[in-house]
């Protein structure tokens, strides 16, 4: 069974940019719900294999994709943020960002604008697109839609309303602006370094 990750910071550690109330609800209710649902689906799939009963397989696979993606993306999101102590992209990652986006400001602008206009509930991500050998900004709707195969997630922001509405109401731009202050670039750098060591990245 999949276990919830532990947060690397206290519930009030992201204030004033991300409120304790929002983080508690996000982690203890919503994220926990995805983990619980994912585990329930795994049990149902195990029973289906054991009994050779696949009448409901289409529904189970759809739920697996949705709930499992919710678990993965929430864990990326919680690990991507930290107490508001300044961090920044490593020299290597910054060099790559400049190469693929023209400048760091160009990247931030594209990322923020893409996040702001994600339709319905969704996410925005910085990913390494292995097939194209470059960094890309992607929107992701309903956890599993609008993705590119073979991409490796480096940075993610949760744009579901539960992530910001209590504190920022419908002002997505204000939420995104605040979020930049708690981005944990050290984790992003570590993920990028891992890709370099695995020779996934060609200079």
Overall pLDDT level: 93
Label the CATH architecture of the largest domain. 3-Layer(bab) Sandwich
Could you say which overall geometry the principal axes of the C-alpha atoms support?
globular
DSSP summary: helix tally = 7
How does the major sheet shape up? 3 strands, antiparallel
Question: Structural class, from secondary structure content?
Answer: mainly alpha
The number of distinct β-strands equals: 3
Radius of gyration: 18 Å
General description of the model:
With 203 residues, the chain is mostly helical. The protein has two domains: 20-79, Fe,Mn superoxide dismutase (SOD) domain (Helix Hairpins, Orthogonal Bundle), CATH 1.10.287; 91-197, minor pseudopilin epsh fold. Helices cover 51% and strands 12% of the residues. Strands 2-1-3 form a three-stranded antiparallel sheet. Strand 1 and strand 2 form a beta hairpin. The longest helix is centred in the N-terminal third of the chain and has 32 residues, at 20-51. The protein is globular, with a radius of gyration of 18 Å. It starts with 19 loop residues before the first helix and ends in a 6-residue tail after the last helix. The relative contact order is 0.15.
């Amino acid at each position: 069974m999949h276990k919830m990750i532990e947060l690397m910071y206290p519930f009030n550690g992201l204030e004033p940019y991300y409120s304790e109330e929002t983080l508690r609800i996000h982690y203890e209710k919503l994220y926990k719900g995805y983990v619980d649902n994912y585990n329930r689906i795994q049990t149902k799939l195990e029973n289906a294999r054991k009994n050779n009963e696949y009448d409901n397989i289409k529904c189970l696979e759809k739920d697996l994709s949705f709930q499992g993606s919710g678990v993965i993306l929430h864990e990326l999101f919680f690990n991507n943020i930290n107490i508001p102590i300044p961090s920044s992209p490593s020299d290597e990652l910054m060099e790559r960002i400049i190469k693929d986006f023209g400048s760091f400001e160009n990247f931030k602008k594209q990322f923020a604008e893409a996040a702001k206009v994600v339709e319905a509930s969704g996410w925005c991500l910085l990913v390494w697109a292995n097939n194209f050998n470059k960094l890309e900004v992607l929107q992701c709707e309903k956890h599993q839609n609008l993705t590119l195969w073979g991409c490796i997630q480096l940075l993610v922001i949760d744009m579901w309303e539960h992530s910001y509405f209590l504190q920022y109401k419908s002002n997505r731009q204000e939420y995104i602006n605040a979020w930049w202050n708690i981005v944990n670039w050290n984790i992003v750098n570590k993920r990028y370094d891992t890709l370099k060591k695995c020779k996934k990245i060609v200079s």
